[in-house]
Design goal:
5 helices; mainly alpha
Length: 102
């Protein structure tokens, strides 16, 4: 089995672990930024096999420049979305905020 066979490349900014809806960013964020071991990650995501987690980490190690940019883009996108949500809260969020004030 080739390493790439573990993944579904939907677009340059959307790589999933094949057979799941889990993006590689989910595993890699825990591995890189939270310093979690593959075994700890497997406990957190029971739908993933330990082999898939190791394959994701190996893919990162073999493609560090590309995957580092992928992760940077993903983190920046999340920050932009959170900022937009703070600036333009949904009606439901506004109701929750009003309830919290009371």
């Amino acid at each position: 089995m080739q390493l790439e066979d573990y993944f579904l490349f939907l677009s340059p900014d959307d790589i999933r672990i094949k057979g799941t809806r889990v993006g590689i960013e989910t595993v890699l964020y825990d591995y890189i930024y939270r310093s979690r071991t593959p075994e700890e990650i497997a406990k957190m995501y029971p739908s993933l096999k330990l082999e898939e987690i190791y394959a994701t980490i190996l893919y990162y190690l073999q493609n560090q420049e590309h995957v580092a940019q992928y992760m940077t883009d993903w983190i920046e996108h999340g920050e932009r979305m959170r900022s937009e949500q703070r600036q333009n809260p949904s009606p439901a969020r506004l109701r929750f905020q009003q309830m919290a004030v009371r």
